[in-house]
Amino acid sequence: MKGIPTVLITVSPEVSAQMRPPRALYPNGFKIGNSLGKPNMRELQVQVLRDALSLLTQNTRPGKIIKRDYPDYGEYHEPPRVKT
Amino acid sequence: MSFSRKCVPFTPFDGELAKSTVALVTAGGVHLKDQDGFNIADELGDLTYRIIPEDVNAGDLMVTHHHYDHSDADQDINVVFPIDALRALQQEGFIRGIARKHVGYMGYTMQLKAMYEGTAREIANEIDKGSRADVAVLTGG
Questions:
Q1: Model confidence band, residue A48 (pLDDT cutoffs 50, 70, 90)
Q2: Which of B79, B83, B84, B132 to mutate to test the interface with A (most CBs of A within 10 A)?
Q3: For chain B, which residues make up each domain, given as ranges?
């Protein structure tokens, strides 16, 4: 079985990290329900998607979640924390 | 094939995005309006998934999910299932194509083993053999 290269877009990075995703993007401060941004903000959505896909061609460390800032989102929501 | 709990399941991507076909897989409870919704009455969650065709209109999709606020997705499905954003990337040549099939499922489940061993495998098969995607983008809600 060869496998399928994947990239995850997560808005709960601590939760997602527990599953050790091969590649993952966390748009900083995006709330749950807004993985790609807000409704009808197409340019922002395209940018987030482009950045997520770009991780496939970057030498990211498997299991590491990459955080990127998108000021156009205009808000910051604290992501869920995992209790240790 | 089973993995150690400490493994990172990683498949290398050795191609070029500009020559690649991309599939979307969302756990955000997305499905076509004329498909059955996910069972939100079942406390254990719903292990089923839906196939979403490549030529879908965003307006024909909806969300059935009771574990996140999907009011924004109700307005614009692209916030969790970025099909139009993906089309824009194809138009600009960033990716070559959009996979024939995409998948929506309801990621909430209390039956982790069944999800892991059953649903996840079936979805992987759909994406790999059914849609012949080169890569998959996963989203939650």
A1: very high
A2: B79
A3: 41-127
